[in-house]
Design a protein that fits this description.
With 299 residues, this protein is of the alpha/beta class. It is 41% helix and 20% strand. Strands 1, 2, 3, 4, 5, 6, 7, 8, 9 and 10 form a ten-stranded mixed sheet that branches. α7 packs antiparallel against α8, α7 packs parallel to α9 and α8 runs antiparallel to α9.
Length: 299
Amino acid sequence: MLGVIILNWNAAADTLACLGSVLAWETLTPRVWVVDNASSGDDVAQIRAAFPAVSMIQNDNNAGFAGGNNAGIAVALDAGCEEILLLNNDATITEEDVLRLQAVLRMQPHIGIVGPALWDADRPDTLLSAGGKDIATHIVSHNYTLPDQAEYLETDYVPGTCVLFRAALFRTIGLLDEAYFFGGEVADFCARARPAGFISVIAPQARAYHRLARSSTSREQFHIYYVLRNRFLYVRKFYPRRRWNLFALWVGYGLYVTALAMMQRKRWRARAALLGVLDGVRGRYGGQNARILGRQGKA
């Protein structure tokens, strides 16, 4: 059985559109869970009114990408799902492409994680990612080339925007690491899967589309903070012997981003970048949205 998990946080319109696409599939009949990460508005009521048959999981607080999806993964495992698809609510994938992902996952027992080629929903000819490279050593970690002919392409990690997991893998190595909160947790999972004998791959023939247009200053602050900070967490876990050399790389890059933002008079971006570096070096992880925005309380 296939389980599909869609995470919602203050974006009911995106989630409704994503659900409409998934529930229109004709061959696949997945169990679908929407996990609401303590949205501040009436998101849950909107989703329940539009799709009363869809299972909802309501978190008491914003548990981030990792914690929110973990809530869904745990329920999907208890329900007996053999494969679990994480799908961003601002991403779309056709039923045919999900079937392609399943076909690749079932080719070899050592394939544990598979994702599609990820394309820009607003510019469909623009490839956003064909898997990723080691996030400890690459500032730009996305692959931007696809093989001409290949059933699958092994990669260091699969972006969490749309990713299909062999459910047994969660029982073997555990769930996503919630210390990341947002960004890096799937790369971490793929790295943990390798010693257990599982590889991560991209199915080049499968496509998913990600809409990047929805943006705001606060979202950009979150993005730059967690991208920087979580590199330090990943280095701590997987490169203990090279820790200080790689820390120097990310401190240097973070200070460059900070200086550039100050030159552009984007003080909010500079603050988020510098805070990400400081928290990364000090080992302060988990959700920090309120601190990123410079205020106390729930965010």
